[in-house]
Amino acid sequence: LDRFSQDVHAARECGASVVRTVLHGGRRYEVFQRAEQFRAFRERVQQSLRQILPVLKRWNIRLAVENHKDLRTPELLELIRRFSDERLGICFDTGNDFALLEHPERTAKALAPWVFSCHFKDMAVEMDGASEGFRLAEVPLGQGSLDLTLIANTLRAANPALKLNLEMITRDPLWIPCLSDGYWATLGEVSGRELAQTLRWARKHSRELPRFAKLPIDRQLAAEDEHVRRSLDFARSRLPILANP
Predict the structure, then answer these.
(1) Which of 90, 162, 167, 170 has the fewest CB atoms within 10 Å distance of its CB?
(2) Predicted TM-score of the model (pTM)
(3) Helix/strand/coil (H/E/C) assignment for every residue in 122-188
């Protein structure tokens, strides 16, 4: 708690009004093998947030909890509403929802009133009909399958001053094993309809995605630089809403 207080104080001294955190560093379907483990995690999260709220108040700063492939939208909203504190909100990552069978164009609308910060990205998908899931990757803005204008407008309508932070991660696609038994250990409440909608979307937009991990480091860095520049160019020319502070 002392370290957290020091970090928040340092951020405030640097001029930050919002700091971002994750509830868990791993992915839900990879970390938790049993529903009881996930329930225990959620209880620990509530205890931690209860402890840090006085720190946020002391330094007059807001905390944005990211949808980090751990809580689905109803669970994250339940958590934020439970505390009902103006200093506690959400960092909305526009790409993470797919991993838990949600779609960011819908979750943006649900989460918007509580969004303090945003990891803005475009996503592409690759599906192998014989596999137990699909692969998901960040791609330069405008080269994926998201309606970025709709998402940006939805978020800005709720919070006109919201900063949309580009998160362009150049890496191999992430494997989402949504048809494997282990994936469902903590996701029993998800409906077959939601699974079907995600798989239909994946099939519709599926394409071969590039791999980067085996490239020489200099080529990986060059690809990262190119992707960031393409994203910024797209934002300037095609998303004028982002030009506003």
Answers:
(1) 167
(2) 0.94
(3) EEEEEECCCCCCEEEEEECCCCCCCCHHHHHHHHHHHCCCCCEEECCCCCCCEEECCCCCHHHHHCC
For the record, the structure tokens of 100 come out as: 């838990």
Encode pLDDT of 136-183 as tens digits: 999 999 999 999 999 999 999 999 999 899 999 999 999 999 999 999
Q: Please give the structure tokens belonging to residue 113.
A: 């009133």
Question: Do strands 62-66 and 88-93 pair parallel, antiparallel, or not at all (unpaired)?
Answer: parallel
Chain CA centroid to CA 34, Å: 23
CA distance 159 to 163: 9
Residue type, 228: V
The contacts of residue 131 (CB under 8 Å, 6+ apart) are: 179
The 10 Å Cβ neighbour count of residue 33 is: 12
Report the DSSP beta bridge partners of residue 57: none
